[in-house]
Amino acid sequence: MIPPRSDLAAVSAHAHPGGGAFGAVLALAATAAVVAYVAAAVRLRRRGDAWPRPRDASFAAGGAGLAYASTAPLPGGPFTAHMAQHLVVAMAAPLLLVLARPLTLVLRTLPPGPVRRGLLAAAHSRPAAWLLFPPLAAVLDVGGLWLLYRTGLSAAARHDPLLGAAVHAHVLAAGLLFTAAVCQLDPVRRRWSVRWRGAALLAAGAGHAVLAKTLYAAPPPGTAVAAADLHAGARLMYYGGDLVEAALAAVIAARWYAATGRAHRRRGRPAALFRRADAPSSLP
Amino acid sequence: MTSEQDRPAPSGARPETRRSLAVCALIGAAVMAAVDEIVFHQVLHWHHFYDRSTPGVALLSDGLLHTAELLGLVAGFFLLADLRRRRALSAAHARAGFFLGAGLFQLFDGVVDHKLLRLHQVRYGVDVTPYDWAWNLAALALLAVGAVLAVRARRRTRLPAAAR
Predict the structure, then answer these.
(1) Where would you find the membrane-spanning parts of this chain (chain A) (predicted)?
(2) In a domain, B24, yes or no
(3) Which of A56, A214, B24, B73 is the most buried (most CB within 10 A)?
């Protein structure tokens, strides 16, 4: 069942799952989260804690991107614009939000009490640990995308605003979950090695790239997309995904680099002192 | 590769020759893949983004390889930085590894991707044979350069060891 052209044009206006009421709600929530984050960071700094300013900027940029992509029309044909929105909501914004370590900030600013205890218990709970198992997070994220674009879900979500909102919410939540599982910046129950996280990123990236190439060949079932729009959207998905995946890889690698550096310094301290014994200055 | 790395590592730090070669082979393969993507896909538009005759398995292997190249490029540079930080980089082995990795990728791309999996061709609308020859001979040339550099690097590290 391929809807006629005019119908497509009509739905594309609100086809962006975020368009309409849910998009506005999401934009408001993102704005409120940014305000709360900055207020908490300011409080922390007044108290004398160190909280790097780039984290504020990262969170604000993530929130702004999310709000913008959920409400404003994006450039390009309907499918390309939808893909741009997908990239921001499911990949770029989650990365910027996760890099700001929101959970760490909340746990540091909340006073001791039931709310803080509850949050800590949730973060350390078994279900949270399972959800944050990198391969599972990858399946939830990329598997959801395959369901969306390779079944009738995409077409159905265009016609049912409620389903559209649910899809939009899932895409954001799964993006946040996968990014958090791969970057592993906030304190959670279980830490996974670089191998697990790298393998999950590799599998998710491959799934994303293959899906982008199949979309280049055929649009989601039940939708009609102009060839040029389809090709531009599929390429945007492929190369845009690459950019965010490279950034995620850089996050994993930079943390590995810092951790091995600390390990080397601990192990190599006596040797370093010995080597420097004849050097005139740098001895502490 | 600056001249600073050409000097032998200071005493106390032993150059890790195998690791230097392997890490730079990873970077070489990933850089070659990036050059392929940028020059032939984006600038010249010779390759097709997706050739409709591509079977599913080929698409999957392409997706895996493409992501692996991307992650390999990032990982390779961090591993290289780690070697330099520990003064364990052997520049001669690193250079050899770079050419070997680049040549291996080019050969894999030319034989497996283009011919066996038929992901896409070097160029469309022309007789592709000379292009395939040029592609694969370039790969062999890179591999030959890498092999010569590897042999020289090995000799260079062996001689001081023998003199000791």
Answers:
(1) 20-44, 56-75, 87-107, 128-149, 161-182, 194-216, 236-258
(2) yes
(3) B24
Which residue among B10, B60, B70 places its CB closest to the CB of A246? B70
* Residue B8 counted as domain residue: no
Least CB–CB distance from A245: residue in B52, B62, B70 = B70
CB contact under 8 A, A254 and B78: yes
Q: Is residue B71 a contact partner of residue A245, using CB atoms and an 8 Å limit?
A: yes
Residue B45: φ, ψ to 5°? 55, 35
The C-alpha of A36 sits at a distance from chain B's nearest C-alpha, in angstroms, of 34
| Residue B1: HSE in the Cβ half-sphere, 13 Å Cα cutoff | 14
Nearest residue to B122 (alpha-carbon basis) of B28, B39, B29, B53: B39
Q: Is residue B6 part of a domain?
A: no
Alpha-carbon distance B101 to nearest alpha carbon in chain A (angstroms): 20
pLDDT digits (tens, 9 = 90+) for A116-171: 999 999 989 999 999 999 999 999 999 999 999 988 888 888 888 889 889 999 99
A168 token code pair = 């939009």
Q: What is the structure's pLDDT at B54?
A: 67
Task: Please state the domain extents for chain A.
Answer: 5-108+130-264
Tally of helices (H runs) and strands (E runs) in chain A: 13, 0
Contact B50 A250 (CB under 8 A): no
B71–A201 CB contact, under 8 Å: yes
- Residues A32 and A67 sit within 8 Å (Cβ to Cβ): no
Tell me if B7 is assigned to some domain: no
CB spacing of B63 vs A209 below 8 angstroms: yes
The domain tally of chain B equals: 1
**Are B66 and B109 a contacting pair, CB within 8 Å?**
no
What domain range includes position B158? 15-163
What ipTM was predicted for this assembly? Answer: 0.79
What's residue B13's pLDDT?
64
> How much is the pLDDT for A9?
39
